[in-house]
Amino acid sequence: MPEHQWRGRATLAAAAAGALVAASACSPGSTSGAGSGELAGVELLVAAKWTGVEQDNFTEVLAAFEEETGATVNYESTGEDTGAYLGPKIEAEEPPDIAILPQPGLVAEYAEQEALVPLSGDAATALEENYTDYWRELGSVDGEPYGVLLKAAHKSIVWYRPDAFDEAGVSAPETWADLTGETASTLSDAGVTPFSMCGASGWTLTDWFENVYLSQHGPEAYDQLIAREIPWDDDTVVETLETLAEVWGEEDWLAGGTDGAVQTDFPTCVTEVYGQENAAMVYEADFVAASAQEAGATVGEDAQAFPFPAVGEEPPVVVGGDIAVAMTEKEGVQQLMAYLASPEAQTTWAGLGGYLSANSEVQPDAYPDEFTQTLAQTILEAGDNVRYDLSDQVPSQFGATEGKGMWAVLQDFLRDPSDPEAAAADLEEAAASAE
Asked: What is the distance of C-alpha 309 from the center of its chain?
């Protein structure tokens, strides 16, 4: 899709629900047609962090597999700390049959512990046929396929209040220079605070960093930074921090000033924009839509979004998401993995809303609204330029632990962004310690 179409569509609704759309084409793992009942009497356990609507939608996806095969698939929530849930179960040799992991780093960790079962048969075929090289490699360890990216999150969009933009006479920026040189400064001059920051939730700051770094320095450097082929005190990291300081260093641009920026968590930062109207913009992923609705906003009307502005030649496309892996060799496990990797299963979930797929065979009209269709297409059409969340690919002690590593260093940098070189040195020290 041409970039101008994405920009035009990016203000449309991200609906919470929609019509159920069934795939017509059969594929490995398909449940189309009359039920075979081949797994009658088989009972499987799937564990993931999802609760509420996410859990309800996922169990609806599983229901089609149960109806076709006769298997019973039970669901158990891991809670937010998937590792804390799985660790004791692996130790006791009682893991779930399939686990949904929130970080690719956990795939490698559990594969090294020999706690995972590689994909085989129709499951391996479905992965090969339905996903591009990048997504297949993301769930592989030493060339062995283990994981299927089941649910994606688009982390390269900025949410805003159109009434605030209209009041200041500004439009959605296309580049970082537009954002800092015109949009934010004009909003501030008009008496509207540009940004609500979610700094108390350190993972949101890593997302800021990833988007700027990917756009400013490109996917090759991004991959090298993850692999520590580039150190964290490299000039590219310093330059990214300097770019972030163009926003983070403007205290008047942040709701509550610097103190407010560091002390506000997610989703309170969304409420500051849409419930309290203390700011015009908040950066975070497509899942902001749910929080905006809870704050009383109508998504697509008074809650709209634009792509994360391009810092370099290309705008960034950063994706997070959840990866399904097999943990036992029980009968039915590989069949269920094949189904989860199929366009049929993911088309069903797409039609329920609140979902994005990286499966190349899921068609745009599977999604219930134009905005979500566009987000899904940008993931697929970004090709070699799309990248998975960096902080979820490095050791968790560095990239995903409260009070440590990237979270702590970037929170300190948000408090005082005056010394990017020192912050980069702190990042390198934390990365080395995590190894």
From this structure: 17
Contact in structure between 420 and 218 (CB atoms under 8 Å): no
Q: Across-strand partners of 334?
A: none
Q: Please give the backbone phi and psi of residue 95, each rounded to the nearest 5 degrees, phi first.
A: -75, 160
Can you give the pTM of this predicted structure? 0.84
What's the CA gap between 364 and 375, in Å, rounded?
Answer: 10
Q: How far is CA 186 from CA 82, 157, 164, 171, 191, in A?
A: 43, 20, 11, 10, 9
The Cβ of residue 323 has, within 10 Å, a number of other Cβ atoms equal to: 23
- What CATH code would you report for 157-313+395-430? 3.40.190.10
* Per-residue three-class SS string for 294-328: HCCCCECCCEEEEECCECCCCCCCEEEEEEEEECC
pLDDT digits (tens, 9 = 90+) for 70-96: 999 999 999 988 989 999 999 999 999
pLDDT in tens, 282-305: 999 999 988 998 999 998 899 999
- Residue 190 token pair: 């008009």
Using alpha carbons, list the distances in angstroms from residue 37 to 33, 244, 326. 12, 56, 22
Query: Which amino acid belongs to residue 88?
Result: P
Q: Which residues pair with 407 in a beta bridge?
A: none
Structure-block tokens of residue 390: 């960096």
Instruction: Give, in degrees to the nearest 5, the angle at Cα 341 between 340 and 343.
Output: 95
Q: With bands split at pLDDT 50, 70 and 90, how would you rate the model's confidence at 6? A: very low
Exposure string for 358-391, b = 16+ CB within 10 A, e = fewer: bbebbbeebbbbbbbbbbbbbbbebeebbbbbbb
CA distances from 168 to 185, 242, 280, 281 (A): 10, 27, 10, 13
Tell me if residue 244 falls in helix, strand or coil.
helix
pLDDT value at position 322?
A: 96
Residue type, 144: E
CATH of 20-154+319-388, one of 3.40.190.10, 3.90.550.10, 3.40.50.1000, 1.10.150.750: 3.40.190.10
Backbone phi and psi for residue 243, each to the nearest 5 degrees, phi listed first: -65, -45
> In which residue are the tokens 């979610």 written?
198
Place of tokens 């994981």: 147
